[in-house]
Design a protein that fits this description.
The protein is an alpha/beta fold. Helices cover 40% and strands 15% of the residues. The strands form four sheets. It has a seven-stranded parallel β-sheet with strand order 3-8-9-12-13-14-15, sandwiched between helices. The longest helix is centred in the middle third of the chain and has 23 residues, at 203-225. It is globular and about 60 Å long.
C-alpha cells in the first residue's frame, strides 16, 4: 500500500498493510534544541519558526505557511505528509498585516485575516486573539460581502493547473481545509470574549455567520472537487480547554451543528467521507455532536485534559482517532514512555481506526534522546501489528 491507500484503510477500520509513522508537530524551540543535541541540521528551520511557533508534522498536513520539520521527518523515516490543497478559505482580499499597538516586548497586530492578536515579540508563546473585523451586524454584512465571496478567484496559487496534474498522480493523502471551523472562524472574526457574548446578545447574527460559512466553503470546495479528488477534509475548532467546551452542548446543537450537517452532507455526496476535527482540550461532551454532524475523525486527544483514547474507543467504537500519546511522558523519561505506550497503543492498534502520535506539539523540555527512545518503542509496536514493515 502507498500512503494514499493506507490512510482510508486505517480510518475506515479496514486491514492496512501497516500503520503510519507520523507525528502531529513540534514547537520551533523544540526543533532547535534537538539540533543542539544531535539532530542533523540539513534543511534547517524557517526564520518564521520562532520558539513558540508550531512546526507541523505529517498527520496535521502541510500548512499554507509551509512550516514543517523536514530534518525530523527524514531522520526518523516518517511516512509522507498529508498535503493540504493550498486553498484560502478565509478572507480575500486579505487585510494588511500591521502592528496596531507597540508595547515594548509585546504588541497587538492585525494579521491577513483581520484577526487582532496580542503577542510577545519573541513569539515564545501562543498569541491571544482579542478581536477582529466583525463587531456587529453592519460590520459582519460588510465583511461577508467584501471578503467572503463564494468565488475561487485569488484563492488558489498561480501554479494551480500544475498542482492538479500532480495530484492526479499522487501516492500521498490529500486534504481540504485550513485553520477554520464553525467556532474557530467566528473566533478569528471577533475574538473569544465577543464571540461568547454574541451567542446571547445576537443569536440570529451568529446563525447567519455559520450558515454563510457553510455555503461559502461548499462553494469553494465544489470548485476544487470538480478538478481534484481529495481524501479528507480538515476542520479546526480548538473550542475546549482542560475543563471542557467553551460553550454548552445545547449551544453547539443550536448554533454549530447545522453548519456541520450541511457541509458534511455535501462532502459525502462528493465522495469525501473522512472529515477530521482538530480540537484541543477536553472534548468528551462534544464527540457525540460531532459524530451526529458527520465528523468521522477527531484529534489530538490531549491526555492532560482528561482524554484517554482507550476510553474514547470503548465509548465510540467507530470513531477515527489520531494522537492520544501523553507528551508529558517524554519529559519524564524512558520508564514513563514505556508505561504510556503500553497503556494505550496495543489496545488501540488491535481495535483499529487509530494513528498514534503525541497529543499535540512536542514541547521544548523533551530531549532528543527521549524522543528517539519514544519513536523506537512506538515503531516496535507498530511493526508487531503490521503485515509488512519497511521503516527499519
Amino acid at each position: 500500500m502507498n500512503a494514499r491507500e493506507r490512510f482510508p484503510a486505517i480510518m475506515n477500520f479496514e486491514e492496512p498493510d501497516r500503520n503510519f509513522v507520523w507525528e502531529f508537530g513540534y514547537w520551533g524551540g523544540t526543533v532547535r534544541r534537538w539540533y543542539r543535541e544531535g539532530l542533523p541540521e540539513v534543511h534547517g528551520l524557517s526564520d518564521q519558526a520562532y520558539e513558540g511557533t508550531g512546526v507541523f508534522a505529517e498527520s496535521a498536513g502541510v500548512p499554507l505557511n509551509r512550516l514543517t520539520a523536514l530534518d525530523i521527518h527524514e531522520y526518523f523515516k516518517m511516512d509522507p505528509y498529508v498535503e493540504r490543497v493550498p486553498l484560502n478559505i478565509g478572507a480575500y482580499p486579505p487585510f494588511e498585516s500591521k502592528i496596531i499597538e507597540d508595547h515594548g516586548n509585546w504588541y497587538i497586530w492585525q494579521e491577513w485575516d483581520g484577526c487582532l492578536r496580542k503577542e510577545l515579540k519573541n513569539r515564545s508563546s501562543l498569541p491571544t486573539i482579542i478581536g477582529g473585523p466583525v463587531k456587529d451586524r453592519e460590520s459582519w454584512e460588510r465583511h461577508k460581502a467584501e471578503r467572503l465571496r463564494p468565488s475561487l478567484e485569488g484563492r488558489l496559487p498561480d501554479n494551480w493547473p500544475q498542482l492538479v496534474e500532480e495530484y492526479k498522480k499522487r501516492d500521498y493523502p490529500l486534504g481540504l481545509g485550513q485553520t477554520h471551523g464553525f467556532f474557530g472562524t467566528p473566533r478569528y472574526l471577533m475574538g473569544v470574549e465577543e464571540l461568547l457574548t454574541k451567542y446571547y446578545d445576537d443569536p440570529e447574527m451568529m446563525k447567519d455567520i455559520n450558515n454563510h460559512l457553510a455555503d461559502f466553503w461548499i462553494a469553494l470546495f465544489d470548485g476544487v472537487l470538480r478538478e481534484v479528488e481529495v481524501d479528507t477534509v480538515f476542520i479546526w475548532e480548538d473550542m475546549c480547554y482542560k475543563g471542557g467546551p467553551l460553550i454548552s452542548p445545547e449551544m453547539f446543537r443550536e448554533f454549530i451543528l447545522p453548519g456541520y450537517k450541511k457541509l458534511t452532507s455535501f462532502l459525502r455526496d462528493h465522495g469525501v467521507t473522512l472529515v477530521q476535527v482538530d480540537c484541543d482540550g477536553d472534548v468528551w461532551k462534544l464527540i457525540p455532536l460531532w459524530i451526529e454532524g458527520g465528523v468521522t475523525v477527531i484529534y489530538p486527544f490531549e491526555v492532560a485534559a482528561g482524554m484517554d483514547v482507550v476510553e474514547v474507543r470503548k465509548a465510540f467504537p467507530n470513531l477515527g482517532m489520531v494522537g492520544g500519546i501523553d507528551k508529558r511522558a517524554l519529559v519524564e523519561g524512558k520508564e514513563a514512555i514505556d508505561r504510556e505506550l503500553e497503556r494505550r497503543v496495543p489496545f488501540m492498534l488491535e481495535h483499529g481506526g487509530f494513528i498514534p502520535t503525541i497529543d499535540h506539539m512536542v514541547s521544548r523540555d523533551v530531549s532528543f534522546e527521549n524522543f528517539k527512545y519514544y519513536r523506537e518503542k512506538l515503531n516496535q509496536m507498530l511493526k508487531k501489528h503490521s503485515k509488512t514493515w519497511d521503516r527499519d
